[in-house]
Amino acid sequence: MMTFQPQFPQGFLWGGATSANQVEGAYNLGGKGLSTADVVEFVEPEDRTSMKIPFPSLDEIQRVLDTENDRVFPKRFGIDFYHNYKEDIALMKELGFKTFRISIGWARIFPTGVESEPNEEGLAFYDNVFDEMQKHGIEPLVTLSHYEIPLHLSREYGGFYSRDVVDYFVHYARTVFQRYKDKVKYWITFNEINSLLMAPYIGTGLVQDFVPEGRLLEAKYQAAHHQLVANAKAIEACHRIIPDASIGCMVIGMINYPNSPHPEDASAAHNDMQKTFFFTDVFTRGSYPFYMKRFFAEHDIHIKMELGDERLLRENTVDFIPFSYYMSGVSARPEQGGEKAGGNLISGLKNPYLEASDWGWQIDPVGLRTLLNMFYERYEKPLFIVENGLGAFDKVEEDGSVHDPYRIDYLASHIEQMKEAVGDGVDLWGYTTWGPIDLVSFSTSEMSKRYGFIYVDQDDYGSGSLKRSKKDSFSWYQKVIATNGEDLSSS
Predict the structure, then answer these.
(1) How confident is the model at residue 357 (pLDDT cuts 50, 70, 90)?
(2) Tens of pLDDT along 81-138?
(3) Exposure check for the chain: N or C terminus, fewer CB within 10 A?
């Protein structure tokens, strides 16, 4: 019997992913305005009883701004990619990257979000970044909104809870499409759009003051509707301005297992999966899925839609589905107790069959293959894994080396399952690991949680030389890309 050997297709887009607010720094240079991420501060480890997801009031934001000199905002300094992008992109070239996912800082282009004319200095910065990528033969993969919007839009409008912000986003999207139409062919509108259900401020800019009393869940889904309309309008503009471009909208990808064979546990897992499928159903199929009608009725949710919204969603669907994958979850009927697993925004009960990262995230490469198949069976649209990686404590040896076999093991096991999914028939365009260079963590605003193949000499408070150096995983991933995923060995 012949043994089947799956292979990645030729032209597979290997690379890595970052976001503007986690790497750029220079928060007050080049005409940039404050973003929602610029007022998220570092939380000391001893104060972290769980992940701190801000959902501030306007008074709390003002208090932070009034006392900002006494606080630490790591996303304001990032790793100073703003001044080091040439060196960093050269390292990506050395790794062999085919693509590099970055995001544009919206407030670097429109400082408050409401300007009619863009900030030329901000546009020029990204021109330089894209030119540098082109020089090294690296294809840009660009996210328009990666967990940040101009802070002014959050404080004055409640972020995407307001319909007005849809128009501001579309104006921004059209501006950058027109500017970079000859430089960028792969676009993502929103990063992990389903995160807004757990983190409405981070995902949409929503703050407490704009939410009617007792109506938070409805407010989240209203903001979701506005983001989905903004996504459709951006897709329409992208296809008109850059006809040969591909554009998608990103979700947190996660598979949920039932806690037991109990039918109600299986139903709970199914319901948890629908929280993700709601978003992918809308932006892929072009309409609200049937199962949301009951959900909205049971939770007394009334979504305000404008005339033409349904047509917009129907006529402007995504070209591909980009998603992140870090872990799987365990779902159970409400009365079931059990130890909770760690997680970023979505988690569940602890799975006794899985190992976990230093931060308690459950490591499940087989779940990635399953999810790839689920997405492709459901939509038959090209898929793109735009985030996957292991956050860990890295030790710098006396000679400056960093030995990170745990990172190699994590990534190799996931790439192996990706290859199996390709063998299953899944149309997978590419893979960008999260944080190819150490960056400020989204969830904890710390540097101690490191993802990169490239070590950055900086601590949680911004101290350090910022020197870049290669970890053991650097040469390993270099080899993976050079062999198109055939050689995953650590030797």
Answers:
(1) confident
(2) 999 999 999 999 999 999 999 999 999 999 999 999 999 999 999 999 999 999 999 9
(3) N
What is the domain partition of the chain in residue ranges? 13-482
Residue 7 predicted with pLDDT over 60: yes
Per-residue pLDDT tens digits for 436-490: 999 999 878 899 999 999 999 999 999 999 999 999 999 999 999 999 999 999 8
CATH topology of domain 13-482: TIM Barrel (3.20.20)
Classified as helix, coil or strand, 267 is helix
How far apart are the C-alpha atoms of 491 and 475, rounded to whole Å? 10
339 is catalytic: no
State the catalytic residue, choosing from 24, 139, 218, 387: 387
pLDDT in tens, 307-326: 999 999 999 999 999 999 99
- What is the token pair recorded at 24? 């750029």
Mean pLDDT of the chain, nearest integer:
94
